[in-house]
């Protein structure tokens, strides 16, 4: 009876797609978006994933150590050529408002005894990037939050200035809470309503069409390579997609915006770093009306 049952039993169809179907652009993007729901990928993730052991830290997938013995090559690049590192996982907070009000409140979370401050002339002009240690408001030398780097947007003639503060993702929530407290930014400037459910349904439909067993691709997927894949990665590894990303103070007019994963950040190390930048970036010609 067992033998007859096995003979008459229908052969189960394989659930795995062929490589050609898996490598279609629309299917790749849908699969990549699905895998980024818990841990965000950097722009260089694919390149690193092929060459590095990846680890999941601070809500991101990061390259930890190379799969090959490339330490000598990296050292040679740093000492004689140019080595590039992807630091896009660092968090960026943007402060917008009057320069005097920004400096007045920022002076409460740093100290001149530790070195540079936000008021340093070379940094305030926007020509150089500065670095310092932040503390809780009026608590120096206690209550240290952590090291940050900052850069001012050059003046354009008005009192309104923009300041970008970069920090490690492990420090973001504490620093953001302290900045919101000293600037009294409690109300969201703009309520952002994400669409993760709609995106997920669309992605699932795309995957269901391809995964349908024993059937050809239906009308929804007939466009093939011409179809525009849905890519809607909202938020980042340190922020929930349902949370606000911008806050405003009704008393001071200061606006705090979370620009994490919106601005890419790369670090170039080596004597040829400037040569690489000059060859890569070309200055645009000024056009006067």
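^ structure tokens above, recovered residues below v
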């Amino acid at each position: 009876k067992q033998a007859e049952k096995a003979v008459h039993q229908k052969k189960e169809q394989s659930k795995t797609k062929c490589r050609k179907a898996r490598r279609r652009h629309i299917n790749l993007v849908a699969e990549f978006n699905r895998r980024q729901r818990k841990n965000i990928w950097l722009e260089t993730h694919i390149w690193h994933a092929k060459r590095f052991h990846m680890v999941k830290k601070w809500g991101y997938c990061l390259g930890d150590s190379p799969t090959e013995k490339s330490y000598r090559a990296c050292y040679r690049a740093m000492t004689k050529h140019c080595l590039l590192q992807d630091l896009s996982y660092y968090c960026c907070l943007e402060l917008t408002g009057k320069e005097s009000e920004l400096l007045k409140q920022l002076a409460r979370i740093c100290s001149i005894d530790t070195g540079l401050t936000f008021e340093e002339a070379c940094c305030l002009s926007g020509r150089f990037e500065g670095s310092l240690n932040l503390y809780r408001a009026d608590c120096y030398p206690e209550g240290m939050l952590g090291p940050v780097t900052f850069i001012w947007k050059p003046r354009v003639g008005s009192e309104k200035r923009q300041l970008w503060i970069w920090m490690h993702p492990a420090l973001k929530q504490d620093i953001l809470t302290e900045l919101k407290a000293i600037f009294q930014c409690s109300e969201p400037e703009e309520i952002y309503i994400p669409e993760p459910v709609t995106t997920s349904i669309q992605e699932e439909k795309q995957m269901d069409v391809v995964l349908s067993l024993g059937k050809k691709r239906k009308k929804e997927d007939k466009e093939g390579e011409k179809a525009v894949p849905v890519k809607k990665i909202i938020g980042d590894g340190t922020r929930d997609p349902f949370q606000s990303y911008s806050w405003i103070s009704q008393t001071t007019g200061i606006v705090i915006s979370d620009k994490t994963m919106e601005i890419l950040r790369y670090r170039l190390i080596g004597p040829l770093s400037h040569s690489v930048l000059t060859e890569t970036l070309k200055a645009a010609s000024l056009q006067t009306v």
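DSSP finds ten helices and twelve strands in the chain.
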